[in-house]
Each structure stands twice: as structure tokens, then as C-alpha cells.
Amino acid sequence: MCLLSVDLASRHWSDLGIVLIEPKPKPAPGRGIQAIHCEIFNWRDELAAAGPRESTPPIDPEILAGRLNHLANTRNVRLILLDGPQAWKSAHNGLAHSRLSERLLNTAAKTGLPGVVKPVTYRAFADYCVDVFDALTRRGWKRLTTTAQPASTAGRILIESYPHAAWKSLGLKPLPSKSRHKISDLADAMAALKALFPLTVSRPPNHDQLQAIVAGLAGLSLTDRQAAQQLRLATKIYGQPPRREEGHWREGFIALPVPAPGTSIQWME
Structure pTM? Predict the structure, then answer.
């Protein structure tokens, strides 16, 4: 079973990192997993021909959700990981400015009560990400809400990822920011990932796509525990279940990949 990992962007289609991740078995039956194959998609700005890239309108969450849903339907995807906040802070989580998952992972940006973020420049992106999650739920997807059932048996599931922390949880150096990275940084990071896992890619990934790859590894334990066990890959899930409060989604889990001797899902609250 394959999964879809998305490094979200709100301005330009070409800034989205979209990767389909699928364990590939060895040719001989019963011989285990040959590779984790990453099929990379590049959705460029449709309006690029109409003018400069800077003049194109922001990505509409409904259109993005429709495209992701169509891709998932055509490729039998049951799990989508999205790099961006899925909900707002609960008024009852005991924290002043963030969701529990953000506090546990010490995220750079914090999602507070509805409409409140730190830093304030994060507001538009936070609204956009929550809207993408909501648009997918209107198409039959559900935020992961239970610790009792793996995603592979729970229908079509959404979960939040966090690439920066995913590198660290795998014991690797995080990628520099997109504005500061060099081509050599991508090559070094990809080599480090390949030293841990048998990764193959359909094309060399750019910064956004490589972020989607590392974040998406957290989904393998949720979709194919046997494959994850063979790959010595596990998942840590941070935070509290998402829930509705006063008309808004609050809290939500963030999933990270971790190397492990056996596959398991570890819940961090």
C-alpha cells in the first residue's frame, strides 16, 4: 500500500513537494522489501503563461484538495501526510500559546486559539493549512483521531508531518532553509537517507520534494507494519487527538519517523 506525503505551500504550485511513497518487494516471494520507492510529482503554476510567477494568485485549498484526492483515488492511497497545522490550540490543553504537539516538538511556529499564531506572519499559512485539511475531510478523508487503530484499517486518513523534526528524529542533520540551501545540501541529505533506508526516486528531488520524502517515512508504520519492520522503521506520534471545540478543529497529532529494531507506533503525550 502506498502513501502520499505533501510539503505544503500556499503561493505557487511549483513550490509544493508531492511524493508518492511505496515499499517495493524483492522479485522473489518472501524475500522482503527491496526498496522504498518515491514517485515525485511536479505541479507547476497553471497561470505561469499569463504573467510573471510573482503575479499568480495563491493556491486555492479546495483545488489542491481536489487534486490530491484525485491522485489518491487513482493510486489507492489511504494515508496522506501534510506538512502544516491541521487545527488550532484547545482552550483546555494547559498551554498558553500552542498545541501540545507543537510544545513537545518545540516547533518554530505556534498555533494558538483560532486566528492566533506566533509569529504573526504565520497566520495566513496556518489558515491555509487548516483549510486544506478541512477540504480533504469534505471529500471523505479523516484526521487521525485514535491511538487504537492503525491507519491501514481505518479508512482514508490524514495526519500532520514535520520535516525539520523528522531529520532530527532519524539522527540526521536537517536541511538548511529553502532560501539558504545549496544543491550540495540536497545531495548530502539524500545520501544520508539512503545510508539508512533503501530509497529510490523517480527523479532527483528538489528541496520541497526531499522534505516530503523524509516526513513521509513516518507513514510506513501506519500503512504497512510488516514492511516497516523489515526496514527497521517506526513512528512516533506526538500530541492529542484532534477534536471539535466551539466550531473549530483543535489539537491533532504530528507523526515523525524513527529508526527502530522493530516496527511500532509510539504515542508521546
Answer: 0.92
